[in-house]
Structure formats: structure tokens, C-alpha cells
Write a structure and sequence with these properties.
heterodimer, A: 14 strands, about 20% helix, extended, B: about 280 residues, mainly alpha, elongated
Amino acid sequence: MYLRKSFRWNLQCRLLILLLLLTIQILAENIDPEIVIAKVQANYDLIEDYSVTARVKVDIPNLRMPRKKIKFYYKKPDKLITKTNGFAIVPKSGMFPVPTTFLSDSTEVKWTREDTLNNSKCYILECGYSFDKDTLSNFFLWINTSRWTIDKITTNESGIKGSSMIFSYVNLDGFWIPEATDLYINFKKGLPDASRPSIKYPFGFMSFGKQFEEDKLHGEVKIMFSDYKINSGLKDSFFNNQK
Amino acid sequence: MISLLTATRLELIKTYSRYRTYIGFVTISILVPLIMWLVRKYGFDEMQGNTLNSLENSFVFVGSLVNGLLISYYLMTVLWVHFPFFIVLVGGDIVASESSAGTFRLWLSRPVSRFTVLTSKFLATFIYTSSIVFFLGLCSVGCGILIIGGGDLLVFDKGILILSQEEALLRFLLAYSLAVCVQMVVASLSFLFSTMSNNSVGPIIGTYAIIVVSLILSVLRIDALDGIRPYLFTSYFDVFFAPFADPIPWEEIKFNLSRLGIFIAVFYSLSLISFLRKDICT
């Protein structure tokens, strides 16, 4: 009788401890995404201005362009000048992965899980405008927990395959800044097949209505950054004069 | 005997001492800079930019698509219909004017063969054609870069092809060299008519009429015309756009050039037959 009571008490205690541990574990894993984002943002808050040279290589079906060198000049809050010889295309969000460029006030962010990327521990945050079933698009930020940088971004968009951006970093004067960006992108609609001017079509021909082949709906862009100058004191007049 | 070289030199002096030779040069000198200035002042609604719209969600475009090279590229379309006028103006006149003036009687009394006379005139036509085509090229690319500015050239070829300025300039050089061959077909046709006529109006109008009719037949996509299209010289007129492809379709260029070469050879041979039989004493 005593033994049975003791056994029951022991079991109850063990269950209670297990429950307590589980609760602690769950609470511990529920990381506040706001804090994570703030830590990433803090990495860039001290950067007042920068200039950088980007070398862009584009590999998109139906678009062939030579490797381009583009010079970027940025000053807080929103002054930006790009200089290139001729014409170039660059990804909208592949240049400087600062959280404020991805997240607006209406963006909802939630912590999803933990994973490793290139042997580094990452928190994965899901960002979107709402998390109901009708969500049109959302994206995932892979935050490196050792240096608090965005190492990878993946997107989900209804109707097309996901796209991804992978960033590699270098430490310069204490700032973790992108050294290279690889962008793998899927398009809803590709570039039209177009032909050069001919006797038949004096100004060239474009088949806008043509159904695009599956292999022509994705592309790749690689950007290499160099010649960083951070907080060099770019003057407002420099940006105004360029306009 | 007067050598072919001397006869050609004399023909060139005659050709370049006529006012009508300079009509084309003057027109190009006025029109091309004017077009470039208008584009600079009022812009240009280029088709290439519209094709990039599908990338707008993911990319930003840095720099401008519109530059002197793009306008020069589109200006090359004048080489099909409009530009041949300047060629026939000289090609149609070079033999016929001497027939009407009666100078052949004097010219052929010298120790020179009819073959040499005709070939020297043909060579002079070729040199004039080359000079005006390259002048158009130099004027359009040069004025384009000076007035609008240089940059990458955006063209259509299996989608969009962006050529760097250095690469585009080399391709323009190749394109205008091919345009010389195209215009030489026009020149040799007008030259043929010139040997058959005693006034230059007939060869000019006749050549132009044939060019227009051939172009219409080449453009119309009617199945019944498929059989005759390979025999129309205008079907090969778009060869000068081939260098703006990647990779350059050398086989296509060789094929088109060989066909244009055949036309030039046939027209020259017929001209020679016509001139050898020509009555210059009347």
C-alpha cells in the first residue's frame, strides 16, 4: 500500500517536472521577432552613409547583358545615387539587406523555427501582410544569430515558384556588410521573344502573347561588392548636384 | 592603253565634280544631326523599354536606354527604301549622262577599251556607294554620341541583347560594311539601266520602281509568293542587321552576301553586254 502511494507520488512529481520543463522549453523557443529585427537593424543604425561598387552579372532567359559595374552612393534617410556606364538592371532588394527595406509598419513578423545555414545558427522569421489563408505573398528572413545579419531571404508567392537571395558578409570597421549577393528569381511572366528588324518586321518583332516555357521563367543575378566607404561624410550637396 | 586605275581615277574626278553627287551627303549632314537633336530635346518612345516591364517588380533599371547608338540603330532602317534614292541618283546617271552628252564618242576614240570604260564607271559607282554609306554611318553614330550621348545598345535578338558601347561600335562597322553590299545591288541595277538609256531620269525611276515592287513582294506574307521571294534581291536586304545578334550569325551573313554578290555580278554582266553593244555614234 505504502509502495503504491509512493510510486504514484513519484510519478506525479515526474510528470509535473516534465510539464514544467516543456513549458520552459516552449517559452524559451518563442523568441520575440521584434528583438531579433532590432538586433539586425542595430548593425546598420550607425551607418550614416556609404558608397560601394557593385559588379552585377545577370543570367535571365531572353535577356543578355554584359557584366556591369555600378557605383552606389547612399546617405540616410533616403538619398541614393547610382552611376553606371550605359544601362544596367539590379535587383530591388539585393543590395543592402537592412530590415527597414523589407519591412513596413503593416508587415507582420513571426518567429517560426531555428535552422543552420553554412554551419551558422539562424532564426527564421516569417514576414507577410497577414497570415491567413488568403495571404498572397510572404517571405522568410534567415537571421544569423552570431552576427545578427540577414543571410538568406526566401519568398513564397502564389502562382509561381519561390525566389531566394543569399548574402555573404565581410566585417569592415566593425560593420557586417554584404560582400556578395546571389539572387535566384522566378517570374510570373518572362521576357518576350523578340527578333531583330527584318524586311518582314522593319522595327523588330515581339511575341507578347506567347506562352512562356517553364525554363524561361527563372533567372539568376550575382552581385559582388567592393570599394566600400562607410561614414565618409557624403554631403547633401553631392546628392543634390547629381540630380 | 589607259589603265583601269587611271580610268577609275578620271571617273571619280568626274563623279565628285557633279553637284548631284553631294545631294545625299548634304541631306545626311542636315537630317541626321536634326533627328539626334530632336530626340535629345523631345525624347524617344523606345520599344525596348516596354519589353522590360515584366521585370519591374523585381529589378530597378539604372541608366538610360535611349542613347545615340539606339537612334543610329533605328536610323539604319532608312537603308531599305529611302537611302537607295541617293545611290540611284549617281548610279543611274553615270553612264546615261555621257550617252546623252555624246562624250562617249570622244572618250572611246582614245586607246581605251569599252570594258575598261564601263568597269571604271562601275568601280567609281562602288566607291561613291561605299563613301555615302559610311558617311551615313559615321554621321549617325558620331552625331548620336556627340548630341545624345553614348552607352550600351539595347537590341532585339531572341529577347533582349545589351551590347556594350565598344562592342556595339564594332558591330556598327560590320553592319555598315554589309550595307555597302546591299546598296551596291541597288547601284548595279541602276548602273544596268543607265547603260540601256540615254538619259538619267529613266534609270532612276526604273530602279526605284523595281526596289519598291520587290520590297512589297518581299514583305507580303502570301504563300503564293514563297516561290519567287528567293529571287528578289530585297529579300536579302536585312543582312546589315545580322551583326546585332549574339553570336553573330556568320552562316546567315555568308548566305545573304553570296546571294547579293550574284545579283551584283548578274547586273554588272548585263551592263557590260549592253554597253559593248551600245551604239555610241548616233
